[in-house]
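Minutes, methods subgroup
Present: GH (chair), OT, SY

1. OT presented the first of two proteins processed in the latest run. Sequence and structure tokens recorded below as shown on screen.
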Amino acid sequence: MVTKVQKWGNSQGLRLSRQLLEDAQIGVGDEVDVAVHDGVIVVAPIRHLRGKHRLRELVRQIPKGQKSEEVDWGGPVGKEVW
């Protein structure tokens, strides 16, 4: 795919075709890592190793005013040092 670097406000950007993004398995809103290797710009999707949940989304689900209490898991079992 050939495209042009264009000015958007105070930044520059590239438009990427839907097909290109589908081939790279990147969707709108996905996080990507952008890096330069030997003068080449590399855009790679960030893969979440532990599933599709993101910490910020999970924290948003905690009810306002939630009070957590300490949980006693019992005494040491084995060679733990407390």
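2. SY then presented the second protein from the same run.
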Amino acid sequence: MANRWNQSEIAFLKSTAGREPIQIIALALGKSEKAVMSFAQKQGISLAVERKRWSGEDDAVIRASVKQDLSAYKIAAVLGRSEKAVYHRIEHLRKLDDAG
């Protein structure tokens, strides 16, 4: 018999859909990615992750943190971003600063 979805799993899916990648959701639920995708589609739940735009405030935090020699890991924790995203943003800001 199929592994049925309980109310807490459905609530978790609804609260994380669009905020976390499907791989993370499936792992947290102990279900396959295919099962999560199929269930979400049947329920009309979008799994597309929306990218968070960088704000001027984010850039100011990054610039100040870099001046204080904080690691990308610590900056990422403050901003709620991935370390990789912060590395890329630091490089982007350096290029802008060098050009201007």
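Chair's summary of item 2: Residues 7-43 form one domain.
Next meeting: continue with the remaining queue.
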